[in-house]
Hints:
Helix content is 51%, strand content 15%. It has eleven helices and nine strands. The strands form two sheets. The chain has a five-stranded parallel beta sheet, with helices on both faces. Strands 2-1-3-4 form a four-stranded parallel beta sheet, with helices on both faces. Strand 8 (229-232), helix 10 (237-243) and strand 9 (246-249) form a beta-alpha-beta unit. The chain is globular. The termini are far apart.
Amino acid sequence: NKRAGYQAxxxxxxxxxxxxxxxxxxxxSLNILGDFNLAGEIWMIRDYYERMGIExxxxxxxxxxxxxxxxxxGAALNVVQCSGSTMQLAxxxxxxxxxxxxxxxxxxxxxxxxxxxxxARFFKEPAIMERTKTIVEAEVKQLAVALExxxxxxxxxxxxxxxxxSFKAFSLVKAFRLIDMQVVMVGxxxxxxxxxxxxxxxxxxxxxxxxxxxxxxxxxFLTEKEVDIFVGGVKERPIAYKLGIGFCDHNHERKEALAGxxxxxxxxxxxxxxxxxxxxxxxxxxxxxxxxx
Length: 293
């Protein structure tokens, strides 16, 4: 299964780590774990870190290099994006090499900014924190202006979210709120009770929280809530189209970079183009059944 595959991959990588020279690595350094360079996202993330004055030792595994992975044990910090796939590797590296780790999300303004600030706080270097503040302030200021027309057009529209991991769902809820959309359903395949309690706390009253739902259940909830756009993976796309509602691919098959500050603008554009597409005038949306008299 998937979990066994993750473990096998972490074991293989761990055998490679520790076999390279670490003598030239900066004390202000990190490894990026669990980012797979979808649509070039890892290059955007690396650029933020390098502008902060932090050396990226290894990407594991997006755009990764064997030579870099061999010396990954010399980094000061592991930054974990997809905890399901690489948290075990981070734990193994902490146990053997004493490298601490933090979990981050690169999606949405709030989580992207918080990730950069968390890392700056870890290094306790004033110059790094100052550069981080400059980066975040400049990116947010530019992004706020660019997002405004999408926010006005999408205000009040309804969104549903169903993704693999709940950590991604948290970021999506915040991202939709940023463009004034209402999340009326959210769930994941692998979330815990604590995850769903947190999702309930950050969503509006009446939001449907789902765990490992099947297509019939998802169809029922999407129809009941009269959703305008559904965010999911490749298996959820047909559900949306059969119901006549927009779809946003947030899985590994996507072609658009959605991470980072630039990714938030791409996300808003994709949501706008899906919700406002003229194609929906030719596809009757399935409505919830009216109660019989």
